[in-house]
Automatic annotation (TrEMBL):
Keywords: ATP-binding, Magnesium, Metal-binding, Nucleotide-binding. This is OBG-type G domain-containing protein. Residues 249-332 form the TGS domain. The keyword ATP-binding applies. Its cofactor is Mg(2+). NCBIfam families: redox-regulated ATPase YchF. GO terms for molecular function: ATP binding; ATP hydrolysis activity; GTP binding; metal ion binding. It holds the Pfam family MMR_HSR1. GO terms for cellular component: cytoplasm.
Length: 334
């Protein structure tokens, strides 16, 4: 699953990307520093895998991770190709979740596309470009199939999508095979100054990238107190990553094998056979069965073997729906 970071130029997209990924993407005070997208993996904060390792004493621990993409700034008329807009819009089509960063900080030395800083207006500019881009795609498809009788049902669906887009609304469930941007789930991030004083006039996840950069080496209690003083979200970047997982309907399961304990991200509703394939394709191809233990039972009895001896683990087949926190042991033929 991919999370794409979008917004106008110079709103803090690459700074947020660097904060999350420690990828050191270039950041500057002028527009279009980012031309090619930056891609990085972000570890998912997870107390459960840490607790599992405390019990198993596994020498290796691997957090689950999620891919983030830092996409260059969009400007007005991006859907017409302005500012390499067509290229940047194509990058957004590849992601599963859109993170829309809004600038909520005053910085005279950092260029902005407007003389007046208005997060709500900035949001409207970018969102309009996504709507217009989708509208063009829908209209092209309609023009192509308009006179073909066998596409009558699709034309009706496209007509409803076009009406919604024309009214500035994202289509709910379009049920059409087109690479549309506006139906993608979205999180609005308000990038505030390190004092949290800016009055933004729009709701979103409140974070100060500048503050987070300053407090990297502080302990968690100090970070929490400083975030509280700044009026931003108390959980900071970790809370933001958690919110991304919620919007993507993601959850975690765990494996303990040899020297490694590992967390794996999957979408809710994932079948065991597909979870096995995420671990290794050989496990999916040669799947026999899976032994499943809940995280709570693992913690309660202090280990997988102990749970087995007490009859707490369950044998499940390939159709089993993986649950959040499951600890799974796959049996397979090589």
């Amino acid at each position: 699953m991919k999370v794409g970071i979008i917004g106008l130029p110079n709103v803090g997209k690459s700074s947020l990307f660097n904060l999350l990924t420690e990828a050191h993407a270039q950041v500057a005070k002028f527009p279009f520093t980012t031309i090619d997208r930056n891609v990085g993996m972000v570890s998912i904060p997870d107390n459960r895998i840490e607790r599992i390792v405390e019990i198993t004493k596994s020498p290796k621990m691997k957090y689950a991770s999620i891919e983030f993409v830092d996409i260059a700034g969009l400007i007005q008329d991006a859907h017409k190709g302005e500012g390499l807009g067509n290229k940047f819009l194509s990058h957004i089509r590849d992601v599963d979740l859109i993170v829309h960063v809004l600038r909520c900080f005053m910085a005279p030395d950092v260029a902005h596309t407007s003389s007046i800083l208005s997060p709500r207006d900035d949001y409207t500019i970018v969102r309009t470009e996504l709507l217009l881009s989708d509208l063009e795609i829908v209209e092209r498809r309609m023009a192509k199939i308009r006179k073909v009788a066998e596409f009558h049902d699709e034309m009706e669906r496209l007509s409803k999508v076009k009406d919604a887009l024309s009214q500035g609304e994202a289509p709910g469930e379009p049920h059409i095979e087109l690479p549309l941007l506006t139906p993608k789930p979205e999180i609005i991030v308000l990038n505030l100054d390190d004092e949290g004083k800016f009055q933004n006039g729009i709701d979103g996840y409140r974070i100060s990238v500048a503050l987070e950069e300053e407090i990297t080496e502080f302990d968690e209690d100090e970070k929490t107190e400083l975030r509280k003083d700044a009026g931003v979200e108390m959980e900071g970047p970790a809370g933001f990553i958690k919110l991304c997982l919620e919007r993507l309907n993601m959850m975690l399961f765990y494996t303990i094998k040899g020297e490694e304990a590992r967390a794996w991200p999957v979408q809710e509703g994932t079948k065991m056979i597909d979870a096995a394939g995420k671990i290794h394709t050989d496990m999916q191809k040669g799947f026999i069965k899976a032994e499943v233990l809940t995280y709570d039972d693992f913690i309660k009895v202090g280990g997988f073997v102990e749970a087995q001896n007490l009859g707490l683990s369950k044998i499940e087949g390939k159709e089993y729906i993986v649950q959040d926190g499951d600890i799974i042991l796959i049996k397979f033929r090589v």
